[in-house]
Amino acid sequence: MRRVLWLLQVVLLSIACSAALASAADTPPELALTLDQHRFSPEELRVKANTPFILVLTNKDKEDEEFEIASLRIEQIVSGGKTLQLKMPALKPGAYEFVGEFHEKTAKGRIVAE
Amino acid sequence: MRMAAVGLVLLVCGAVAPAYAQYAEPNITFFYPLVTRRPIIERELEFKLNYTKGLDEREIEATAALEFPILPRLQFEIEVPFIVLNPDEGKVVAGFGDLELQAKLQVFKSVQYRALVAFGLEYKLPSGSRSRDLGGEHAIEPFLTAGIALGPFDLIGEVAYEWLLNGDEHPREQEFTARLAIAYPVSRWFTPLLELVTATQTRGPAEDEEGLLHKMQVYLVPGINIRPRPGMTFRAGFQVPLTKAKEFDYQFLSALVVEF
Q1: What are the distances in angstroms from CA B127 to CA B100, B123, B130, B199?
Q2: What span, in angstroms and rounded, lies between the C-alpha atoms of B20 and A20?
Q3: ipTM of the predicted structure?
Q4: Per the count of CB atoms within 10 A, which of A15, A28, A35, B1 is most buried?
């Protein structure tokens, strides 16, 4: 009986471990987006549709900026000189315009999911 | 042997978990309803100006509110109202009303589904003068609020239950409120909205002036959001009763929100 319980524990822990490792292996791809002199670079990001990704957003300016994707209801303050790693949702195919709300005339771009 | 195996598994899992901790979920935002509470953690200053045509008085209420998150998902708010009351009979009175403190905890956020859920507690201090009809209510009100973007529409719903605590002076009034707000963001700068509000006094004086006990009051609130500049939102609208059971004839609601 003890042996069965021991085996059961090993199996359960193995499953948990495998799941964790599998998740690690499935870590979403990272895409870099930099804000410098109130302009995003690159201005167009291409991502795989229906797949989550990590957006590594760096604000090289001194001022804070509010990163906004209105169609996704996303609004995120990025402090000056800081980098954020944002877990982005899986996007349906299409184009998603983004802006830096505080400098909207220059800080703009789009994410294309395809 | 067994302990070693468990330790090894925990070590591996523990090493994997922090890899995710470094990623933040972006914030989700919705429009600003006029009366419905939002499930959003805010860092804002808010200046409200409301005009109420009551059943036997007219009231202007100017309020300043500070909303501040102390944790990423926990926000506190303090609200200080100043009231000018002009009764149909009697003199005009003015003064500070009841101070309101609010804590709000966001319990669910899904960027994928663009959905948020928060619950909170509002605490009203009887700082306003009861003898001059400027408040004097001591009350608590737990609430639950949730929002979701459905296609081009934003929906926010809220339920709340208010208990008056200073029952020696007041009858121990209790009120259930349910609110639903829908908006269609036409652009990033302009959003029309509509709210449906119901309020039912579940406990209170059987024969008060308005006779509201156990009667559902229903109000409609058409309004707009305008963003005159980044980080600033102006909202305005009218709250009008649809039922005979009502606390006022109409109410003009407006506020300027400044994010900081």
Answers
A1: 9, 12, 9, 24
A2: 11
A3: 0.73
A4: A35
CATH number listed for the domain at residues A28-113: 2.60.40.420
Domain ranges of chain A: 28-113
B23-57 confidence digits (pLDDT tens): 888 999 999 999 999 999 989 999 999 999 999 99
Using the beta-carbon criterion (under 8 Å), do B13 and A86 form an inter-chain contact? no
Chain B interface includes A43 (CB < 8 A): no
Structure tokens that stand for B131 in this block: 């003898």
CA atoms within 13 A on the CB side of A61: 20
pTM: 0.83
A29 in contact with chain B, both atoms CB, cutoff 8 A? no
Contact A104/B at CB under 8 A: yes
Q: Which residue has the tokens 């059943």?
A: B55
Q: Could you give phi then psi for residue A81, rounded to 5 degrees?
A: 75, 10
From A112's Cα to the closest Cα of chain B, the distance in A is 17
Is residue B228 situated within a structural domain? yes
Burial of B99 (0-12, 13-18, 19+ CB in 10 A): middle
Assigned domain for B18 exists: no
